[in-house]
Amino acid sequence: MSAAAAALGAVPATTAVAAPADDTRAEVDRLYEEAEKATEAYNKADERADALRKQVGGAQDRIARQQERINTMREALGSLAGAQYRSGGLDPSLALLFSDDPDDYLDKAAALDRLTAHQAGELKDLQGAMRELAQERAEATRKLGELEKSRKAVASHKRTVESKLARARQLLNSLPSTERDAYDRASRSGRSDLPDLGSAAPSSGRAAAAVAAARSAVGKPYVWGANGPNGFDCSGLMQWSYAQAGVSLPRTSQGQRYAGRQVPLAQAQPGDLVTYRGDASHVGMYMGNGQVVHAPYPGAPVRYDPVGMMPGATVTRV
Questions:
Q1: Strand residue runs (E) in the chain
Q2: Residue 232, SS3 per DSSP
Q3: Chain segment 226-252, per-residue pLDDT in tens
């Protein structure tokens, strides 16, 4: 259950419409959680698509270079064949009959043998190059197929997120204004000011730089699929913060869970990543004194919240 649901659930039902309103708020929280999971799936598919685009680009470059090499080899073989025809187009046995100088014939025959052996080697190289080109083209075709599937997955996850967020907004709009205002206040119960973070020091210089970056993002809006600098989803905030420290993190919260060494929650230090739920579909950064910074969900900007705000917390030291 989110902090919003917990906060609102503590309010006693005093009117006949309270129970339906509670159900609506619970459904909104559920939709936001599902949208967050779909967002992480979107990020993973988008990351895969980016990697495939790079692989396809590399394959196309190799194909172009290999084709250029083959064209050069073909030109060389054409010149070689022309030279052979001009210097020894006649069968050697007939050439001996027409030759006035047996020594001259022997010289030409020896040159023809060397030329033929060299040509055979060039032809073998050309055949090998053409086989490599065919393999490169087949691999590029396969990668293009994977890329198209990945693009479709990205679009599908995007539609899922948009659908769930639209449904959540529709449900919120169906609430009476007083209930909607109460939900909005509860959903922003996290602190945007700097709380008492205690005296714990980050575990490293890069963690300290990431902490400073995360602090600078407080108040920025939640934007699904975004990784800064003007908007963030949960894993995007972590990736951007550590990028400011020169550290490359995976794009998804699931990947970030395994981007370092696991430590007990009781030993968390500022800069550690805290992932939530069994599927690690949400992530924040530990800031000290039981507080994390995270991008919660649409409508709630980057903020501070208690580390125990969600179940299943695991801590990763980058």
A1: 261-263, 273-276, 282-288, 291-294, 303-306, 314-317
A2: strand
A3: 899 999 999 999 999 999 999 999 999
Catalytic residue annotation: 234, 282, 294
Tokens standing for residue 50? 């980016």
Q: What is the pLDDT of residue 217?
A: 95
Take residue 185 and report the two structure tokens written for it: 């206040």
CA distance 302 to 295: 4
* Sequence letter at residue 311: P
Taking residue 167's Cβ as centre, other Cβ atoms within 10 Å add up to 15
What is the average pLDDT across 43-60? Answer: 77
Across the beta sheet with 314-317, what order do the strands follow?
261-263, 314-317, 273-276, 282-288, 291-294, 303-306
Structure tokens at 199: 């005296």
CA torsion sign for 81, 82, 87, 90 is positive
The model's pLDDT over 189-206, given as tens digits with 9 standing for 90+, comes to 455 566 778 888 999 999
